[in-house]
Design a protein that fits this description.
single chain, 297 residues, alpha/beta, Rossmann fold, six-stranded parallel β-sheet, three-stranded parallel β-sheet, globular, binds nicotinamide-adenine-dinucleotide, hydrolase, multifunctional enzyme, purine biosynthesis, THF_DH/CycHdrlase, oxidoreductase
């Protein structure tokens, strides 16, 4: 049987560590603050933001939430970000994506003060990550790295395949895995929608990171026996449940878990880690801005 990589357990450890950093900050008279900005009526986005606010409360981070009408002019969002950039009680700013079509996402990401950019999406922070001098690692790939570390998955010299090349998961994930650093040093292949023979690439992989957003499309027959399988996918599929749907990963868990050496479930794998790493980045931001050394990566 494969080792089941328990994201809830590792995320709880991260939150406990974060709560300790909150105490260290409190001793220096600093209460970390995270601002979330929502410009959308999408119910999923609303849920994500309220979860993030609840997570903050649980560890002693001040949550500040701003909502902007989805049909308001883009300038309203820029002005809001400018205000939050100036506020001393706000150390982290997160603009919930996606923003409406009439708002240019890239401009929004550039507007956030890079020292408050706890998502790590500002080009300055993307550049620093690629250069091996990350300030804020994006939450999902950072969370995956913490999972690999917690379960002593050997990445050095391993053949890793990242499936997906998005700016928020695939690209930063691959960049972390190739770094000359702990939980890095992997020989990393990035696959995407134009990849010709995914089966062949996966067949040689010691480590698979699935982030394509396609329900259960990687099955056991594609997995190299003994490989570590990290399933980032969170996909809604119709199901006979109260809500009328259920969440499944990009990996077909039943067949993949018969061949994998270790595997993350969905839910309960990467999802809780993403949430925990946002808190981690927020205390890191507060420490950096207020000169409190917390020694975080
Ligand atoms: P995205 O839609 O931005 O990117 C999907 C990527 O998959 C693209 O780069 C595309 O080239 C690639 N792809 C599409 N079809 C493919 C195929 N047949 N073979 C190989 N690659 C293919 O998605 P995203 O934002 O990176 O998210 C990916 C998945 O991860 C989604 O299910 C999303 O819900 C989930 N997600 C989970 C978390 C978490 O916390 N667990 C965080 C972010 C995203």
């Amino acid at each position: 049987d494969p080792e089941i990589i328990d994201g809830n357990a590792v995320a709880a450890d991260v939150r406990e560590a974060v709560a300790g950093h909150v105490e260290t900050l409190a001793a220096a008279d600093v209460t970390p603050g995270l601002a979330t900005v929502l410009m959308s009526e999408d119910p999923a986005s609303e849920t994500y933001v309220s979860m993030k606010q609840r997570d903050c409360e649980e560890v002693g981070i001040d949550g500040i939430h701003v909502e902007i009408d989805a049909d308001a002019p883009a300038s309203e969002l820029y002005d809001t970000i400018d205000d939050l950039n100036e506020r001393e009680d706000v150390h982290g700013i997160l603009v919930q994506l996606p923003v409406p079509d009439h708002v240019d996402k890239r401009s929004v990401l550039r507007q956030v003060d890079p020292e408050k950019d706890v998502d790590g999406f500002h080009p300055e922070n993307v550049g620093r990550l690629v250069a091996g001098d990350a300030r804020f690692k994006p939450c999902t790939p950072h969370g995956v790295q913490k999972l690999l570390d917690a379960y002593d998955v050997e990445t050095e010299g391993a053949d890793a395949v990242v499936v997906g090349r998005s700016d928020i998961v695939g690209k930063p994930m691959a960049n972390l895995l190739i770094q000359k650093s702990p939980v890095g040093n992997a020989t990393t292949t990035v696959c995407h929608s134009r990849t010709e023979d995914l089966d062949e690439k996966l067949g040689d992989a010691d480590l698979v990171i699935a982030a394509a957003g396609i329900p259960e499309f990687i099955d056991g027959s594609m997995i190299n026996p003994g490989a570590t399988v990290i399933d980032v996918g969170i996909n809604r599929v119709d199901a006979d449940t109260d809500k009328g749907y259920e969440l499944v990963g990009d990996v077909d868990y039943d067949s993949a878990s018969k061949v994998a050496g270790a595997i993350t479930p969905v839910p309960g794998g990467v999802g809780p880690m993403t949430r925990a790493m946002l808190l981690y980045n927020t205390v890191k931001a507060a420490g950096l801005q207020r000169g409190v050394d917390l020694d975080l990566d």
